[in-house]
Design goal:
Helices cover 54% and strands 21% of the residues. The chain has 390 residues and is α+β, with helices and mostly antiparallel strands. The strands form three sheets. A five-stranded antiparallel sheet has the order 2-1-5-4-3. Strands 7-9-10-12-11 form a five-stranded mixed sheet. A two-stranded antiparallel ribbon has the order 6-8. Helix 1 runs antiparallel to helix 3 and helix 3 runs antiparallel to helix 4.
């Protein structure tokens, strides 16, 4: 539980940092792109200014195309002045075609950027090979991205170390608490056994209400102690899983049939719908324990004259175990709270039912240890359904 909280803490912090870093990278990317565009535009402006003023090229990797229009509005002359070897004839023609096709607006063809200047009957197209600018832009973006990744990884290490300093004291306290519960439960078992044995001896001298009360409360304490020990083992991951292939249908049926007489005695009906010969690879003990816990809970809390239904089926590749009982007074919004330790609805789960309030918490622990998904769904005043996907 502490490890999950620590992982969640790290994930939340790193997710927030990732959002900040993505925003920072996005802003930086567009800033570098705008800077690159400005540099290209300034270069084109310089090419145009120098050519118009001096009729020559002094800027490296530059190109000027002059198109002259005659009286019939046709291009009667074309001259090309170049100061680059990287712009090919094909690209020059593409620049001319692209500029004329777009009403002589500025633009780019491949890595050649151009600008159009209208001077009387002349169209002066200034162009430059932007490979160098683009290379610098990509290099800056890559370097900035690498820097952000390095900083992010360093922050992850820092957050991880921070989480250790934050959660280690909590982990130590939680461990001591679990150890205390486990030790206390073990220590309580001996006096409870002695009290129970003495009560049975006293009963031999005749029925006595006070002795009966001692026996019933001792039995209840024994149930609580055993449940606390089970939870302590689950918390400390002491329950070793024995993974075997077995007939799940047969195991569930055998465990469920033991509750048939109990349900009948309490005036309730137990229905079984178990798909035959379902094979499963897992821990048999966990399956038996969780079936017993869920059926015991259903029999206790089903309304008088009500029904309990256990269904086991396989759909696609998933095996589903469902335990249903009529008569739930758990509020719909509190359905998942029944897995909390000592949770009781004031209206429906009195302590006189004989339970410890830990049964479904143990079921949740068993499910978590086996990587099963367990959920509950309550319909107020109608029914409770607990579903496990194995």
């Amino acid at each position: 539980m502490i490890r999950k909280a620590q992982t969640k803490f790290i994930l939340i912090i790193m997710s927030l940092m990732l959002g900040v870093f993505l925003l920072l990278f996005g802003v930086s990317y567009f800033s570098l792109q705008n800077l690159n565009d400005r540099n290209i535009k300034n270069t084109l402006d310089r090419i145009e200014t120098h050519y118009v003023a001096n009729g020559e090229l002094t800027i490296p990797n530059s190109l000027v195309i002059v198109l002259t229009r005659d009286e019939s509005n046709q291009f009667s002359n074309k001259s090309i002045l170049t100061n680059t070897t990287t712009i090919t004839e094909r690209q020059i023609q593409m620049v001319i075609d692209n500029a004329s096709g777009n009403s002589f607006n500025s633009g780019s063809v491949e890595n050649v950027y151009y600008k159009v200047y209208f001077d009387g009957n002349r169209f002066i197209i200034s162009a430059t090979d932007a490979n160098e600018f683009l290379h610098v832009f990509k290099s800056n973006v890559s370097n900035f991205l690498i820097l952000l990744i390095i900083i992010y990884l360093l922050l992850f290490i820092f957050v991880y170390i921070l989480s250790l300093s934050v959660f280690d004291p909590i982990k130590e306290t939680f461990f001591k608490q679990k150890q205390f519960i486990s030790n206390a439960s073990h220590e309580l078992k001996t006096p409870l056994t002695i009290i129970s044995a003495n009560a049975e001896v006293l009963k031999q001298n005749g029925e006595n209400q006070w002795i009966d009360n001692i026996s019933s409360q001792t039995e209840r304490l024994n149930i609580l102690v055993n449940d606390m020990l089970s939870l302590a083992k689950i918390d400390e991951a002491k329950e070793q899983l024995s993974i075997l292939n077995f007939n799940l249908s047969e195991v569930v049926t055998n465990e469920a049939l033991a509750f048939d007489a109990l349900a009948f005695e309490k005036g309730k009906t137990l229905n079984l719908f178990i798909q035959p010969n379902l094979q499963y690879k897992g821990d048999i003990k966990s399956v038996k324990n969780i079936v017993n816990i869920l059926l015991d809970n259903a029999v206790k809390h089903a309304n008088t004259g009500g029904e309990i239904t256990l269904q086991l089926k396989k759909e696609s590749s998933k095996i589903t175990l469902t335990v249903f009982n009529t008569g739930s007074n758990i509020p719909n919004a509190d359905s998942q709270k029944i897995f909390e330790r000592f949770y009781r609805s004031d209206q429906s789960r009195s302590r006189e039912s004989g339970g410890s309030g830990l049964g479904l918490s143990i079921a949740k622990g068993i499910a978590d240890n086996n990587k099963w998904k367990i959920t509950a769904s309550s319909k107020y005043q109608e029914s409770m359904t607990i579903t496990i996907i194995l």
